[in-house]
Design a protein that fits this description.
By secondary structure, the protein is α+β, with helices and mostly antiparallel strands. The protein contains two helices and ten strands. The protein has a single domain, classed as Lipocalin (Beta Barrel), CATH 2.40.128. Strands 1-8-9-10-2-3-4-5-6-7 form a ten-stranded antiparallel beta sheet, covered by helices on one side. Strand 3 and strand 4 form a beta hairpin. The chain starts with a helix and ends with a strand.
């Protein structure tokens, strides 16, 4: 069987998660293994920090920090099913915000709010 060059490149790109629309939902274990303890950096397109470059670090002890755009916010995080939930330290539980993460390429992720992040610093 003969594969065209375009077909071969598409197959390689697909194998590395570079095809548009490719996304692999992350399990809680994958989130813990890949994304806890590292800066996840991105630019939200909605909300009060829209357009601002921010990095979030989820620590193993359940604390989290968001920094960038002249702010530093400390909070806590936990897992609820496949969702990662965060809130500031002083917020009640009902104020926590939960999102799911998916892998969209090597070192690149997207949350269910549509914010694309990378393990920072990003290029």
């Amino acid at each position: 069987m003969r594969i065209s060059r375009v077909g071969a490149l598409a197959a390689i790109a697909g194998a590395f998660g570079m095809v548009a629309g490719y996304a692999e939902p992350m399990t809680p274990d994958q989130f813990r293994e890949e994304l806890v303890g590292v800066p996840l950096c991105g630019v939200p397109s909605t909300g009060p920090l829209s357009g601002k470059s921010l990095c979030t670090v989820h620590f193993k002890d359940g604390t989290a920090i968001v920094a960038g755009a002249g702010i530093v916010v400390r909070g806590v995080w936990d897992l609820e099913g496949d969702r990662v939930c965060r809130r500031t330290i002083n917020d009640p539980m009902e104020r926590r915000r939960c999102v799911e993460y998916e892998r969209v390429g090597t070192g690149r992720y997207r949350n269910s709010d549509g914010v694309e992040v990378c393990i920072g610093p990003c290029q």
